[in-house]
Design a protein that fits this description.
This protein is α+β, with helices and mostly antiparallel strands. The protein has a single domain, classed as 2-Layer Sandwich (YaeB-like fold), CATH 3.30.2310. The chain has a four-stranded mixed beta sheet with strand order 1-4-3-2. A hairpin with a 2-residue loop joins strand 2 and strand 3. The longest helix is centred in the first third of the chain and has 20 residues.
């Protein structure tokens, strides 16, 4: 199964948001494990960064296919509309 790692501590993100993020990433990791490792989908997710919004935060993460890891690289607090 894909592991979830964080590029830095993200201490500024509230614990409830981190918990929701962790839960969402676990579901993503579980789904990745069910997908065949061939085709356009894998090429796409392994090349670029991905975005996950956990209101009111936005997280950037990437899929490291070789290490079977989801790596959270950045977190930004989004402004309210």
């Amino acid at each position: 199964m894909f592991t979830i790692t964080f590029a830095k501590p993200f201490d500024e993100v509230p614990s409830d948001v981190r918990a929701r993020l962790q839960s969402m990433l676990v579901r993503i990791a579980q789904n990745l494990d069910t997908m065949p490792r061939t085709g356009v989908t894998w090429k796409s997710i392994s090349v670029g960064g991905l975005i996950l919004d956990v209101h009111p935060w936005r997280f950037q993460y990437r899929v490291d296919v070789k290490k079977e890891s989801l790596v959270v690289e950045d977190a930004k607090l989004r402004a309210s509309p």
